[in-house]
Design brief:
Number of helices: 11
CATH class of the largest domain: Alpha Beta
CATH architecture of the largest domain: Alpha-Beta Complex
Strand order of the largest sheet: 1-2-3-5-4
Shape: globular
Number of domains: 2
Structural class: alpha+beta
Radius of gyration: 20 Å
Helix content: 40-55%
Order of helices and strands: HHEEEHEEHHHEEEEHHHHH
CATH superfamily of the largest domain: Aminoglycoside phosphotransferase (APH), C-terminal lobe
């Protein structure tokens, strides 16, 4: 496609990954977009910038003139069941799915287009974002766990066990100092918390103010879910991690606020937040310092 444009975040992500498979996928991307533009009779605009790190997405119109979004995503583990999740949520608090296909290590999705499509984080201050996030999560947790009677979605335990194993591996390969007590507590919680939840729901796992868009069908719609089944308390964590100023000012207080809005166990949310802060601290040392403060609140 002449003049084919790439989202900046996607290019940066592929370069940082240094994966021959992802390099090859990026090279195939123009052909994939063109093929599905023809197959689905789409007129496609420039991709959204700076875009996401694992997908090419652009506004489009179909043959009937309907406004849609074409998303061509690199098939990666956390987003393995995005399509099935979109079907399960069926537009209730989540962007709608019109069509989908798979080809050449890609998920191709034709999605509802949100108008005006402004991200929540650009519109409302964080305390008001909390209310929107809580309202959406409460609705998303009502979705069926096994659409069409099939057990599709992986348990949250799978992701947490993988994180724990990766964290241990990275620690073994680094000379950076780390607190063995924090490390031990993090690993224990990552392996224990998923198995001790008192209920199981369909989780979005990546809901934050950048993944919530202003729309016409509903005031706000979530996008880019990474579905798992598990502890609803976990689903509040990504929003907390994205509220950097308040998180650093009072991490336990922020967790208690969100727990109250979602009718969750505040102590459990503090433990989830602590575990994620320690886990992410190898790349973000400031989260390790936050974890020390959170440890006092556990």
């Amino acid at each position: 496609m002449t003049g084919f444009a790439l989202p900046r975040n996607l290019v940066d992500s592929v370069r940082a990954d240094r994966s021959p498979d992802r390099d090859a996928w990026l090279a195939r991307l123009p052909g994939l977009v063109q093929a599905f533009a023809e197959q689905w009779a789409l007129q496609i605009g420039p991709p959204y910038q700076p875009g996401g790190r694992c997908a090419w997405a652009a506004p489009a119109r179909d043959r009937a003139g309907r406004e849609v979004v074409l998303k061509v995503a690199w098939q990666h583990d956390e987003a393995l069941h995005e399509t099935q999740g979109l079907y399960a949520w069926d537009g209730a608090g989540m962007v709608g799915l019109h069509r989908h296909a798979t080809a050449e290590q890609s998920s191709i999705l034709l999605l509802e287009r949100c108008r005006p499509g402004t991200a929540l984080g650009q519109v409302l201050p964080e305390p008001e974002q909390d209310l929107v996030v809580a309202g959406l999560l409460t609705r998303l947790w009502q979705a069926p766990l096994s659409p069409a009677g099939a057990a599709v979605f992986r348990p949250l335990q799978v992701m947490c066990d993988a994180w724990a194993a990766e964290f241990e591996q990275r620690l073994a390969g680094t000379r950076e100092p780390h607190d063995p007590g924090l490390t031990r507590a993090c690993l224990e919680l990552l392996r224990l918390l998923p198995s001790t939840a008192d209920r199981q729901v369909l989780l979005c796992t990546d809901l934050h103010a950048g993944n919530i868009l202003a729309a016409e069908r509903e005031p706000w719609l979530a996008i880019d879910p990474k579905p798992y089944v598990g502890d609803p308390t976990y689903d509040a964590v990504q929003h907390l991690l994205n509220c950097e100023q308040r998180l650093h000012a009072d991490p336990a207080g922020l967790a208690h606020r969100m727990a109250g809005l979602l009718d969750l166990d505040a102590g459990r949310l503090v433990r989830w937040l602590f575990a994620r802060c320690v886990q992410e601290s190898l790349d973000a040392p400031e989260l390790g310092r936050l974890a020390i403060r959170l440890a006092a609140a556990i």
